[in-house]
Amino acid sequence: MSKINYGIDAPKVIARLIIIGVLIILISILFPAIDINGIKIFTPGFIWWGISLVLTGILMVLYSKFGKFKHRDRILNKIKWNGNEKVLDVGTGRGLLMIGAAKKLTSGKSIGIDIFDTKDLTKNSIERTKANAQLERVDKKVEILKMDILKTDFPNDYFDVIVSNLCLHNVKKSRDRKATCAEIYRIIKPKGTVIISDFIHTREYTRKFRSLGMHVQKEGLYVFDTFPPLTIIRASKN
Ligand SMILES: C[S@@+](CC[C@H](N)C(=O)[O-])C[C@H]1O[C@@H](n2cnc3c(N)ncnc32)[C@H](O)[C@@H]1O
């Protein structure tokens, strides 16, 4: 593989939005009045639904192609780097934050963990993430592990920095998402910084981190360069 590629997020969701949107647009143009058992349905009014679904799909592609790099820098610029940190990227996918963090390090290490689910990111695999790290010339500073955030093998108080973008919402049950926040709390060092970026459940993460005694700040919504619009949570352990 010779080209760096960080993939398209949620490819099936994007495909569904665009296909259903195009179908609605076509039906409302080709069949302006449909008769179902004597009930007349005038479809042109539905065209706006179709257009908004297609636009949503296009905005999601634009985020994956362009916006995510600006958002990566926004997240990483919130840390005062000294170069020797131990960093964890939770749900690294094809390495966006793990590789970005590695570029800030001198003697430190950037670790990415993921279950590599291809529903969440196109061509999501540990091999492609390793290839991206090589192409970005940070392979000596990273380690990529197939590991679920619900139960990691890291010792207590291990990382200086933990980052995560668009991962935690994939944990389906609220109970498990809270367990995920507790696991992050367990492995971050005292005075360490956690930055979680997501589009839903951010209130839940905030409450859980606060209940564990962390100091939490919430920033966003970032509506111009992220889609779906993302919120950033910054939490630090006392
Ligand atoms: C939308 S992708 C985002 C990838 C990357 N953070 C980025 O911003 O490009 C979400 C990632 O979270 C991973 N993921 C989902 N559930 C996970 C879990 N329980 N533990 C670790 N990773 C998980 C998926 O495999 C996927 O790579």
Report on this model:
The protein has 6 helices and 9 strands. By secondary structure, it is α/β, with parallel strands linked by helices. The chain folds into 2 domains: 56 residues; 168 residues, 3-Layer(aba) Sandwich (Rossmann fold), CATH 3.40.50. α4 links the parallel β4 and β5. The chain starts with 10 loop residues before the first helix and ends with a strand. The model has no long low-confidence stretch (mean pLDDT 96). Bound molecules: S-adenosylmethionine.
- pLDDT < 50 stretches: none
Q: How large is the share of residues in beta strands?
A: 15-25%
Through-space gap between termini = 43 Å
Ligands bound to this protein structure: S-adenosylmethionine
The count of strands amounts to 9
CATH topology of the largest domain: Rossmann fold
| CATH class label of the largest domain | Alpha Beta
Name the CATH homologous superfamily of the largest domain. Answer: Vaccinia Virus protein VP39
Give the helix level as a range of percent: 25-40%
- Strands of the widest sheet, in order across it, are 5-4-3-6-7-9-8
Helix-and-strand structural type: alpha/beta
Structurally, the number of domains stands at 2
Counting DSSP H or I runs of 4 or more residues, the number of helices is 6
The CATH architecture name of the largest domain reads: 3-Layer(aba) Sandwich
Task: State Rg.
Answer: 21 Å
Assign an overall shape. Answer: elongated
Biggest sheet overview: 7 strands, mixed
